[in-house]
Fold this sequence. Notes:
heterotrimer
Amino acid sequence: MLRRVTSNHDTDALPPDEETEAILAAQAGDRTAFAKIVSAHWDRLFRWLFQMTRDRHRAEDLTQETFLKALVALKTFRAGSNFRAWLFRIGHNNFVNLKRSQRRTTAVLPDDAPDERGQDDPAATAEDRETLAKVQAAVRALPADFRAALLLRAEQDLSFKEVAAVMGITEETARWRVFKARQKLVQLLEPENEARP
Amino acid sequence: MKIRTPLFLIAFAVISAWASAQNASGPTTAAEHLGLMKSNRKLLEELIEEGVRLGDANTNLERAADCQSVANRLGRELKRAIDLDDADRVVEMSDHFSSLIQSGFLPNLETAKENIPVGSPDYPRLLAIHTTAANSLDAVKLLIPTEGKLSKSLRVQAARIKLEAAAAAVGKPEKE
Amino acid sequence: MKCEACQNRILALEYTPEPTEELREHLASCAACRTAQKKAVKLDALLARLPVPSSQRAKAKLIASLNDQLSVPSSKVPAYRQWMRSPLPGVAALVVLGIGGFFYFSKKQPQPELAEKPRHELLNKELGNVVKLARADSAPDRLRVWTDWATDLRGETRDLYKVAPAEELSSLARMYERAVNEGIVKQATRLPEHMDAEEKQKLLQAADTKLAEGVAEAERLHGEAPPQAQKYLKQMAETSREGRRKLEPILKGV
């Protein structure tokens, strides 16, 4: 069966109806409703921004700034449409702005995230951990645009159309970037023995 | 670490401003009220004229253009406030600017985009209006200083975030 | 289906949980592509497990500020959160943030801010009216906005007529004249013929009532106004009267 593994970072995810309700309440001025929305989306957004910035503090700042901007712009969002894509678009714009300001000051985005291997599944084998580290390094080495598209599609499970909307590119370009990024990464993996049918 | 603490304090400022947006208090004395009327008189007169123009506008595109004109006027007022280091006025004008863009300009622009396809006679004007708005927002955002007295005000920094949100909402015209 | 096409489809993540018949058939018969598929699935599993540090503290801070934990009993609230129980507006409360040492202050830490100066209510209303006119796409909607706008200007005059010099009162009288003639009357003449008669009547009547109130109020205030204000109150009364005269035939024609 050809089934793609999607990540499970929705620790406080809201069912769609509840999310729409929370958004409508927040649009009417209910701060606790917006708090629910933050709770539901923070982990995923932070995860993506961390992979983009490779810096925990910057990722936290960007995540917070993204939610603040979403709060301010909330009335322009059509409740019922894809909130996550809308939120990630704001996040992506923030990341792009950060990169631009970094270029202006000739600083580079740090790549000093602590080795988080300790957080891995304790049952994982040493070989797994080594492969994970290789993939992590390879993801970090991808150009930002390819990394962004790959993670939005493969990890955040957005459609190509949504990826394109988040990044302000065409759907075709989104597909191409995901394809090239995966093509590069999959080469790192050792071929597995074929399981018996 | 420096960047993180101010941002979190800004969060409180943004959230508080958002929560109390409807409860801005009016002037407390007749003298203060008169002072406000004197300093805003010219702006108020211009707003009436802009209102008359808006009342005559028949299409979303025209209304978007008129909103842009009002926004430009508020932008000039904002610049004046920045030059005078008047944090309250900076915040006030930024708030009005952002609201106008989000609630007045943007809905008209979006409806105009739905109704004016690429290649139609009005499309160049739509593109021009969108481009002007995007450039104007970029310019206004940059007006808010990141150094000096005003930059130390959390409310001013929160106002900058609102302007950035407005700019993000407007975006840039799509390339054909 | 050729292997290259199959593997490209897998890499491009174009498959769905239910693969196409063509893809399924090829995979059933091709060991190489099954291997490629397994590698792709493994890659996805690894991407999902990429280590990410915790950000729960930052998340909790933002959520706490939104939930505004004023209802937490003081004995359970750490000292650094005492300030959040202040009834002061959030901005003014920032003045006491230094107490408690919850935040690490750098040299560039923002200074405590004074309470915000009051804003001009008329300016807020006028900008609100501008936005409403931007959203209004019919004469009835515009007429409502202009009726409110004229009323706002009357309100400002009422608040200031005893203290304002001639320049400000003259400005208010001029703006009122524009709101009535270029706003109310103009939009009243543009009300569509096919508009529901009862609704049209209601709308015009509401505008007329406000203008009638304008006449009465200006005349009343004129009686107690200082000399520099009387001329402009008289003007506003006349503007309202003239506005009513222009609305009359439209009302009669409904």
